[in-house]
Design a protein that fits this description.
Blueprint (H helix, E strand, L loop, with lengths): L1 H18 L1 H27 L5 H25 L3 E2 L14 H12 L3 H16 L4 H34 L1 H30 L2 H15 L6 H10 L3 H29 L20 H4 L4 H15 L1 H24 L3 H4 L3 H11 L12 H7 L3 H30 L6 H25 L13 E2 L4 H18 L1 H12 L4 H39 L3
Parallel strand pairs: 1-2
């Protein structure tokens, strides 16, 4: 069964290249970038073979530990994991977990990220090859470390997806994530202070950090290879056993998360639909128009859909990030809070640039019911603005007061209005012009659909650049007010408010017209999510 899953992954990847020439282009670019990493980083690791173990050991241990942490955490905030071999597709085949999990693990190595990680890990083993026995143990250890990294990426995303499906635990998940970010602050501050002491202290810090990392679960395997190269065989074997135990534990967590998240049909089906009496809430206050109906549905998405909650959580973490950044960059911590409002405005407005894709098959109702494109665009913007505008306003005012620069409040408000309006306008056009597939409803919100990587990166880059360019006059006014004349902020407020309203209006009209013409094409794209 394990070999079957690996062959299935290879077959799907090969067939994916036949679907579109853009897939081939993306694959070729990915291969070139992977070769660049292997040649440069791998060559540097192999060159450590000719240095002392006091240099090669800490470098391999530190790089390996960071690789495991990167595999485990990065998919939670960017890109997601490759779901070419989706575990949910095996629900009806009754595949035992004992075969499914190892098969999916090895299938995860099939692909550019897995191949690059494996080759760089072997280069790390070469850096520690001081004897035949040490080389053999190093190869086994780095293979264990590589498998742990791949398994950790699946375990964290699957467990997080299962956690977000439970409504009572969503807030806890966001809180825990924020606390983890804040806890990075002391470490970043310590690193910044030690770097200031000179390169010698930086090397000492690296050795100290590697020594600590070697006794942590992500670093056991890599430290075992370093111990073997140094002749510390007792410690090396102990750490290798601990690394194998960590791998087994991660696979166990992954198997448990697969069972709870449901490799079968998504939870929520079965049983009669519940009706809720109207109670005069926000949903009932929206107008009884097509745009109002779209806004009601989108508001329910923002409250209940894990995919939307992940996007909203990024806004909640912004203040925490602005607490951490001063520790690494130095200076007055309060001044960093000046960016809270504009940064939140950009993130919230830009977050709608592929909103239509989250509808999946539900977008067919818009097409069959003849909903006008302008109403669809307006409803989505209205639903987002009902909670995003107050959040941006609070962060803008709070940022100015915390920084002690109330005189910059007009400039900050103008920049925030321009960024938010530009985000809504660009998103209204982009989601009708170039939507791209996303994780389906009920699926893992941290996964990336097969074949969507190129379209995702291109669309995100273009929309980000467009929002920044459209808000540039207000941003320039904010910069002048910050550096030279605060009174220019009043000009920035007028310019930003005017630009924001203009971009929203143009986005609704142009985006609506595009959606009217391209509704079948948009439906075909979002249906592939």
């Amino acid at each position: 069964m394990i070999a079957t899953l690996v062959r299935l992954k290879l077959t799907l990847l090969r067939n994916g290249l036949r679907r579109s020439p853009w897939q081939v282009v993306a694959f070729v670019l990915g291969v070139l970038y992977a070769l660049f990493l292997v040649v440069t980083v791998g060559g540097a690791l192999v060159a450590l073979r000719f240095t002392g173990l006091d240099v090669a050991g800490p470098v391999v241990v530190g790089a390996g530990t960071l690789a495991v942490l990167g595999w485990a955490l990065v998919p939670l905030v960017a890109f997601g994991v490759d779901e070419t071999v989706d575990p949910s597709r095996f629900a009806t085949f009754a595949v035992p977990r004992a075969q499914l999990v190892p098969g999916l693990l090895l299938a995860g190595l099939v692909g550019l990220p897995g191949a690059v990680t494996l080759l760089l890990s072997l280069a790390g083993a070469a850096a520690l090859s001081r004897s035949a026995a040490a080389t053999a143990l190093a190869v086994v250890a780095v293979l264990v470390g590589t498998l742990t990294a791949v398994a950790a990426s699946r375990a964290t995303t699957t467990a997080a997806a299962a956690l977000l499906r439970a409504r009572r635990t969503r807030d806890v998940a966001v809180l825990v994530g924020g606390v983890l970010v804040v806890l990075l602050g002391p470490g970043v501050n310590l690193l910044a202070q030690r770097v200031e002491d000179g390169l010698g202290d930086l090397a000492a810090l690296g050795r100290d950090a590697a020594a600590v990392a070697g006794w942590t679960p992500p670093g056991f395997a890599w430290a075992a290879a370093a111990d073997a190269a140094a002749g510390r065989w007792g410690t090396a074997l102990l750490r290798l056993l601990l690394a194998l135990a960590v791998l087994a534990a991660v696979l166990g967590v992954w198997a448990l998360a697969l069972g709870r998240s449901g490799t079968g049909p998504a939870a929520g089906g079965g049983g009669p639909a519940r009706t809720t009496a109207r109670g005069g809430g926000l949903l009932d206050r929206l107008p009884d128009t097509p745009a109002g109906a779209v806004a009601r549905r989108c508001l329910l998405y923002w409250r209940r859909d894990p995919r939307y909650l992940v996007a909203a959580a990024s806004v909640a973490v912004l203040p925490l990030l602005l607490l951490v950044l001063p520790l690494s960059a130095g200076g007055d911590p309060g001044r960093w809070f000046l960016a809270a409002g504009p940064l939140a405005a950009f993130v919230t407005g830009w977050s709608l640039h592929d909103d239509v894709a989250y509808d999946h098959s539900a977008f067919a109702l818009h097409v069959t019911a003849g909903v006008r494109g302008r109403d669809d665009r307006a409803g989505r913007v209205l639903a987002a603005a009902l909670w995003q505008v107050p959040v941006v306003l609070v962060l803008t005012v709070t940022g100015a007061l915390v920084a002690g620069r109330a005189d910059l409040l007009p400039a900050l408000a103008g920049a925030s209005a321009a960024l938010l309006g530009a985000g809504y306008g660009v998103s209204s056009v982009a989601s009708a012009l170039a939507p791209y597939p996303v994780a389906p409803p009920g699926g893992n919100p941290f996964s990336s659909p097969r074949g969507a990587a190129t379209a995702t990166l291109l669309a995100q880059f273009v929309t980000t650049l467009a929002v920044a360019l459209l808000a540039l006059p207000a941003l320039a006014a904010l910069l002048v007010a910050l550096l030279r004349a605060p009174w220019v902020g009043w000009v920035g407020l007028l310019v930003g408010a005017g630009l924001g309203a203009l971009w929203v209006r143009l986005g609704l009209s142009r985006g609506g017209a595009l959606l009217d013409r391209r509704a079948p094409e948009v439906l075909a794209v979002v249906g592939r999510s």
